[in-house]
Amino acid sequence: KSIEAYTKTEANTEAQQLRQTLQQYSDAYYTKDAPLVEDSVYDALYRDLQDLETAFPDIVTPDSPTQKVGGEVLPGFDKVTHTIPMLSMGDVFSFDELKAFDARLTRNVGHQLSYSTELKIDGLAISLVYENGRFVQGSTRGDGNVGEDITKNLLTIDSIPKLLPEPLSIEVRGECYMPKTAFEKLNKQREAEGKPIFANPRNAAAGSLRQLDTRVTKARQLDTFIYFITRMDTLTLQTQTEALAKLKALGFHVNPDSQLCHNIAEVITFIETNTPKRNALPYGIDGVVLKVDDLTTQQTLGNTVKVPRWEIAYKFPPEEAQTVVHDIEWTV
Ligand code: NAD
After folding, report:
1. Which of 120, 291, 306, 315 is catalytic?
2. Which of 27, 28, 77, 285 has its Cβ near the most Cβ atoms within 10 Å?
3. For 101-124, what is each residue's pLDDT tens digit?
4. Ligand 1 proximal residues by C-beta, below 6 Å
């Protein structure tokens, strides 16, 4: 049924049902690390809810999944309050929507924008705090304001620098992921032991990081890509591109496939070039993220209750569309 055909009462009833279903899926995904449905199914229902709430703004509730960051703190972990919230990200599923995003932002700021265009790593967000160059605390996103203290778990991950080459007090954010080979090995092992297998590397990474026994985390071969500096200390960076270069110089793993694009046409070319490489990468990606490159403009644009206005994810179509043939073609 098209949105125009709904009365407000009907829209409200439908929205309530969608919220209940999405909440149930979110609990399984974020809290139990065992999704009940594919991401594309979740995304389509989320879109339906968003469309209803846009057409009938009165029916929005503060606890709607469209108004809050998914996830919560597991029992057994200390809580960390994020001084700067860890938000979610808006998404688009077509180039037309991507162009509309760019047009909206360009209108807003009054000039053409450059974007740092990066792969969207399919893992879970982590925050790392350094005091005088020393790694002191790491946490998950949780509900965006309060996450889990997973410092001990993160200390077992080789790619996270424990001491920076400069005595900086900074906070950085990035993605913790499980490489595809580690994921396959883990699931084979779990199958052999009669344990339930993980649905995908993202859920395996989340389940492996949020372990009270850090030996389990250590055995899971997790890796990281860091992509933000949220607290800068004495650093005077102007752009996201500079931030990525600085993170690399500080010894963080930074994904090599990023590009500064000077307009949306270049972003689309980046997406077209990188989509076929997806299967051959040793880690999962579920799209491409574009971020307004200029950090001052980012601040001017600000955030909604749930997402930054200055970045968006272009999500790939569901995985079934791809074949193993790509792997072979790409790696030879
Ligand atoms: P998201 O995962 O779609 O996007 C935000 C996240 O992207 C950030 O928190 C960050 O961790 C990550 N990211 C990866 N690469 C990045 C980069 N280069 N720069 C910046 N961030 C990067 O949003 P979300 O709110 O975490 O989750 C929503 C998504 O989770 C939905 O789109 C859905 O697909 C999935 N989900 C699925 C189910 C299910 O039942 N299958 C349930 C709930 C949510």
Report:
1. 120
2. 285
3. 999 999 999 999 999 999 999 999
4. 25-26, 29, 35-39, 42-43, 70, 88-89, 91, 118, 120-121, 125, 141, 175, 227, 289, 313
As beta bridge partners, residue 121 has 285
Task: Write the Ramachandran bin of 50: left for phi over 0, alpha for psi from -120 to 50, otherwise beta.
Answer: alpha
3-state DSSP call for residue 272? helix
Quick check: 199 and 41 in contact, CB under 8 A?
Answer: no
Q: For residue 21, give the amino acid letter.
A: T
Percent of residues, the chain, with pLDDT higher than 70: 96
Domain range list for the chain = 3-59, 79-331
Whole-angstrom distance, CA of residue 246 vs CA of residue 171: 13
331 has a pLDDT exceeding 80: no
> Roughly how many angstroms between the first and final C-alpha of the chain, as a whole number?
48
According to CATH, the superfamily of the domain at 79-331 is DNA ligase/mRNA capping enzyme (3.30.470.30)
User: Rounded distance, CA 326 to CA 249, Å?
Assistant: 33
Q: Does domain 3-59 have CATH number 1.10.287.610?
A: yes
Mean pLDDT value across residues 276-290: 96
Question: pLDDT per residue over 300-310, tens digit each?
Answer: 999 999 999 99
Q: Is there a shared CATH topology between the 3-59 domain and the 79-331 domain?
A: no
